[in-house]
């Protein structure tokens, strides 16, 4: 096994049937194995590995179809001396018209949520745990120290309940309402949002930037909701989830090759935001929605993403960066 070189590494969720057909079609000295929760493509030929690597990177990103790739090689007994040339290299593909779904209706672009090692997303896992911990504390009447007391007096902000908390040094209340959930379904919904949106952002961008994004989202959503409706008790991590939505939305505009989060999910989240803001969800369900928290979190995510991208952070989400970290 020590003589076999790793050509490329794929996640377990990646369907390699097209690659298997490609190997069989050209009788290439390649094998596919599974090691350490990854699918590895191996070869004993260093030259072949060098030729195939950029081709496989483009296929992994969905830019080319391996079933349409053609190889040319001279008839030599030793594969390491063979002149293997990928016809569909970068320059030639740029001149070829892209095949549209109408040309082949059976082929559709499918987005698969990537899997990440748990040690790459510790903050997301902590946030998911906090969703359920906050719900547990709420139903057992232990959450009062985490919430901002509603203000029923209509006093100026300097005389409000929030000002009273801050004067007592209880600054954590600006963040901790995001932890408290008033129902199990609410906790589940937000935990799912963190799992789908948060883990790709943390795994690609790093935990430090992710912590800043989460804290900014919690702060913006909680303060926005309190200023909008100071007399209403509120809680939940929906504002943080919408900060992730805003951040991901800008990233996908700045770095079009990044598709860890399917665009359809962001579209659904934005539609839900609008339906809640218009009062349609409350009208049909009778459930109060913290719309200011959603909007405040969303715009905080947009703003942070813009600053992040201006300083070059989007490079971490580029196809080349992701491919290089896979190897």
UniProtKB/TrEMBL annotation:
InterPro entries in UniProt: NRho (IPR031976), NRho_sf (IPR038244), Peptidase_S54_rhomboid_dom (IPR022764), Rhomboid-like_sf (IPR035952), Rhomboid_protease_S54 (IPR050925)
Gene3D superfamilies, alphabetized: 3.30.70.2080, Rhomboid-like
Pfam families in the record: NRho, Rhomboid
Signal peptide: none
Subcellular location, record wording: Membrane
Enzyme Commission (EC) number: 3.4.21.105
Annotated ranges, domain Rhomboid protease N-terminal: 3-66
Keyword annotations of the record: Hydrolase, Membrane, Protease, Transmembrane, Transmembrane helix
SUPFAM superfamilies: Rhomboid-like
Family as reported in the entry's similarity comment: Belongs to the peptidase S54 family.
Name the UniProt record assigns to this protein: Rhomboid family intramembrane serine protease
């Amino acid at each position: 096994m020590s003589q076999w070189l790793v050509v490329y590494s794929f996640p377990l969720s990646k369907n390699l049937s097209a690659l298997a057909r490609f190997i069989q079609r050209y009788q290439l000295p390649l094998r596919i194995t599974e090691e350490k929760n990854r699918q590895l493509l191996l070869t004993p030929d260093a030259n072949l590995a060098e030729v195939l690597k950029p081709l496989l990177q483009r296929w992994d990103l969905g830019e080319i179809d391996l079933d349409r790739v053609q190889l040319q090689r001279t008839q030599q007994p030793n594969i390491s001396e063979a002149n293997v040339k990928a016809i569909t290299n970068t320059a030639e593909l740029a001149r070829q018209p892209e095949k549209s779904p109408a040309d082949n209706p059976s082929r559709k672009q499918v987005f698969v949520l990537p899997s990440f090692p748990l040690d790459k997303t510790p903050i997301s896992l902590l946030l998911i745990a906090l969703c359920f911990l906050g719900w547990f504390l709420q139903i057992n009447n232990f959450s009062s120290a985490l919430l901002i007391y509603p203000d029923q007096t209509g006093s100026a902000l300097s005389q409000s309940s929030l000002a009273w908390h801050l004067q007592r040094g209880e600054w954590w209340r600006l963040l901790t309402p995001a932890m408290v959930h008033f129902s199990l379904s609410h906790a589940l919904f937000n935990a799912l949002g963190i799992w789908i949106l948060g883990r790709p952002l943390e795994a690609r961008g790093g935990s430090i930037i992710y912590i800043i994004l989460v804290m900014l989202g919690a702060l913006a959503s909680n303060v926005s909701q309190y200023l909008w409706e100071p007399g209403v008790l509120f809680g939940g991590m929906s504002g943080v989830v919408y900060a992730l939505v805003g951040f991901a939305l800008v990233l996908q505009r700045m770095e079009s090759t990044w598709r860890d989060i399917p665009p359809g999910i962001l579209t659904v989240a934005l539609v839900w935001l609008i339906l809640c803001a218009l009062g349609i969800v409350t009208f049909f369900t009778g459930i109060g929605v913290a719309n200011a928290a959603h909007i405040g979190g969303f715009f905080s995510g947009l703003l942070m993403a813009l600053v992040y991208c201006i300083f070059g952070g989007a490079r971490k989400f580029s196809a080349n960066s992701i491919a290089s970290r896979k190897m």
